[in-house]
Amino acid sequence: MTNQGKATSGGGNMRIGGVFGALVVLIIIAVGFSTMKFAQVNEGERGIIVTQGRVEGIQEPGIFFRPFAPFTVIEIVNVRRQSRTIEQNVASSDKQLYDIDIQVDFSRLPTPDALRDSYGEIGVDDAQLNNFLDGFINDALKSASTQFTLDQVLSDRGGFADRIRQFLVTSPGQGLDAPVEQLFVRLEAVKVLDISVGEQYAALLAEKANLEVQIETEQKRREQIQAQQENNLFQAEQEAQVLLTRERGQTEAALEASSRDAQVRAIQGRYWRENPELFELRKRELMVEMLNNGNMWFIDPGTDVTLLLNQMGNTDGSSTPIVPVQPVAPSVPVPDVP
């Protein structure tokens, strides 16, 4: 009986111990589930792991899970590109008032150090960051407007936007950080959306535009007149060149004919000096050949050939012998006698 009682008592203790152990495990699991931290960080976001008020680390996009972390907090911060639109009434350097709308695109710096410092100074709330940034943008807009006339702002919006950007990324003084460095952001773009001017200035702009159109029209008309004059001058030069070429050709042809005539006369004179009878006989043969061919020949009047034809055409049958004129020998210059 004694041994059986002890066995029964030992079995009861084991069951109690097993139940107690299971209860402890359940309590641990319950505590783990109740104190665990789970967070999903999407693309374009970063998670700042804060344990007991201190930044422990930066969670990249993905799943964060940690059991038994009752004092750990995951702060989600937006690192996507954001835009701020500012509308303000400003005065130009020539004392003209106008309304201007600008847009500034920015994003938080995603580096761990920048996120740590930004969390400590600004926090993770986008609204608070926007308030700080709007103040800097307004100051930059006022400063830039005083350096441009209204005409320059209207004609060079890109230059005006670049000047605003320069104010935002440049240190305002020695020992001071630039506005974008103070806010731990990266400036993406600055754009001028709209510019509104008063009615009086708008009327002046319209008048200026009309004058510019008139000036442009007059300039085009002058260019057309100048082009027409140049065309007329070119045509006149071409016509003069054609006439000059024609006159030159005629002159060269006349010189060539004169040269050939002189050569023919020189040859005739040489043949006549060598054998006058043969020369006259050959001339008559050529005349007979010309008449027998039945062709029309145009002969220079006053030459030996025309005299021959006139004699051959006399009705009384009389004929006068043709005596060619002997070529005159060139004169020999006589030297002067001292």
Descriptive notes:
The protein has 338 residues and is α+β, with helices and mostly antiparallel strands. It has four domains: 58 residues, no CATH class; 119 residues, Band 7 domain (Tetrahydropterin Synthase, Chain A); 76 residues; 28 residues, no CATH class. The strands form three sheets. The protein has a three-stranded antiparallel beta sheet, covered by helices on one side. Strands 6-7-8 form a three-stranded antiparallel beta sheet. A two-stranded antiparallel ribbon has the order 1-4. Helix 7 crosses helix 8. The longest helix has 76 residues. The chain is elongated and about 175 Å long. About 6% of the residues have low confidence. InterPro entries: Band_7, Band_7/SPFH_dom_sf. It comes from Candidatus Viridilinea halotolerans. Keywords: Coiled coil, Membrane, Transmembrane, Transmembrane helix. This is SPFH domain-containing protein.
